[in-house]
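Table S2 (continued). Query chain:
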Amino acid sequence: MSQSTVANRYAQATYELAIKQNVLTEVSADLQELTKVMALNDEFIALLSAPKISTDRKKELIAQVLTGAQPIVINMVQFLIEKKRLNELSAVAEQYQALAAAAQGSADAKVYSTRELTAGERAEISAAFSKLVGKEQLNITNIIDASLIGGVRVQIGNYIFDSTVASKLEDLKRVLVG
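Corresponding output:
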């Protein structure tokens, strides 16, 4: 979760506009896609951060690149460029996703496992753990980690539920060694 006050304010403003215009899920999808693209394309970030390119030109580039995106997303990114806070974009998107998920009765969860989870396993994990955190459902991101040996570790916000073989072996080691 982002701890940036600036990111929280921009995310809150974007969220309120999306609620007002009834495009919460569309803005969420656009922000997810935008953060994926920006994470994979360092040259684009460098171009938008270049001091020799005018702010107006950067805004034009964003408008061209995001032609199919919601106007709220385009305006927010252009505003970040204008205020020279483009480095906050991923934090704004992350905070927005948390606000949108909370409004829809869901939460984001990272599930660490030794292999890719099946749809059935994801549904079972979502059903079991969503009740523990007081949500209707979980948006699960599966992260493969062979060092776990077996089992799963579920992280929902600040909560971590660890039932991996590696953690149980570590607990056993602490008991035996002292």
